[in-house]
Amino acid sequence: YQGVYPVKGNQDRFVVEDIVKFGSSFRFGLEAGSKPEILLAMSCLCKGNPDAFLVCNGFKDAEYISLALLGRKLALNTVIVLEQEEELDLVIELSQKMNVRPVIGLRAKLRTKHSGHFGSTSGEKGKFGLTTTQIVRVVRKLSQSGMLDRLQLLHFHIGSQIPSTSLLSDGVAEAAQLYCELVRLGAHMKVIDIGGGLGIDYDGSKSGESDLSVAYSLEEYAEAVVASVRFVCDRSSVKHPVICSESGRAIVSHHSVLIFEAVSADKPMVHQATPDDIQFLLEGDEEARANYEDLYAAVMRGDHESCLLYVDQLKQRCVEGFKEGVLSIEQLASVDGLCEWVLKAIGASDPVHTYNINLSVFTSIPDLWGIDQLFPIVPIHKLDQRPGTRAILSDLTCDSDGKINKF
Length: 407
Ligand SMILES: *Cc1c(COP(=O)(O)O)cnc(C)c1O
Fold this sequence. Notes:
GO terms for molecular function: arginine decarboxylase activity. Pathway: Amine and polyamine biosynthesis; agmatine biosynthesis; agmatine from L-arginine: step 1/1. The chain is of the alpha/beta class and 407 residues long. It is built from 13 helices and twelve strands. It is 41% helix and 13% strand. A hairpin with a 7-residue loop joins strand 11 and strand 12 (403-404). The longest helix is centred in the middle third of the chain and has 20 residues, at 165-184. Pyridoxal-5'-phosphate (PLP) binds at residues 6, 8-9, 57, 157, 160, 195-198, 246-250.
């Protein structure tokens, strides 16, 4: 086993440097998916184990491929993984020009499909990788160029948060069969790179049904991969490959916590209406008075459904009165107070506290809006008390999207 860390998981320089440093004795490497990432990865891996892989994925132009080839000149163990057929021509041309013997991998589009929230890039219609037809053409072209021995790695990526080991076993078995076929066709295959997807139990449910959890442990994940690869390779009498993984979340999700303070809390206000305050309802216009009497009767009967209805009507009527200039601001406030009091009395009030926090320090928060990423948030005080308050965590800024109501 010889893993790599996909830099996109967290591109913070200090995180990447630590992974390289602590992974050095395990020949642990990095995966880059873009030009900026390969630059970061190259600079970090110069201090890593010389055998560690630098796996170059993603869309590649001449500049990206030149950088990857330059990596081999710098004695980095760079693998250029073809994601598109056209990249092969560039690799052949530039490696001859730069006089570098490249190590080539290819990314296969598997037929096995992960249909979960984070699986949209998988399957035959997925965005990345080569189809079976393209793989056959790439092998032929490499053979014609006398470079088939440079093809050494097979990569695939089922998607993030793989929900179950059965899906994983399926995908790995399909890829392992492809690997064996590449060996049969004469490639000097050494590595099967199973991509990312080792899931995180964000919501604590340990369930394969939830997009935010998975139904397996790290050991079960590893067991499923190794068993599938072994079974398929043994069937074809193919030497067992080095298994490489590109787990991102699984490596960095737990690496840090952010502790922040609720700067202030807005409690739902309960103003007690005194009979005095609402005297005007009895003296005011007919409609408001009728609404009030209906509400009063419903409260006395204990008829909760009608209470809700009459609270709405009374409020509406009084807002009308306010707009017409008949009710004063104090009177409108009294009506709100009365209505809240009724709702509370019948147990229908749902007070939600708003905790104001400073989210501007939380650079990952766009993931929460953009891809519905769940960030587990837990209180660190009063853990010996039963939580009984509903709350929203709200950003200090006046951006109305800046709130977290699921955590
Ligand atoms: C995103 C990605 C990964 C990392 O996925 P995780 O689910 O974070 O493990 C690995 N490889 C490729 C090609 C990716 O796109």
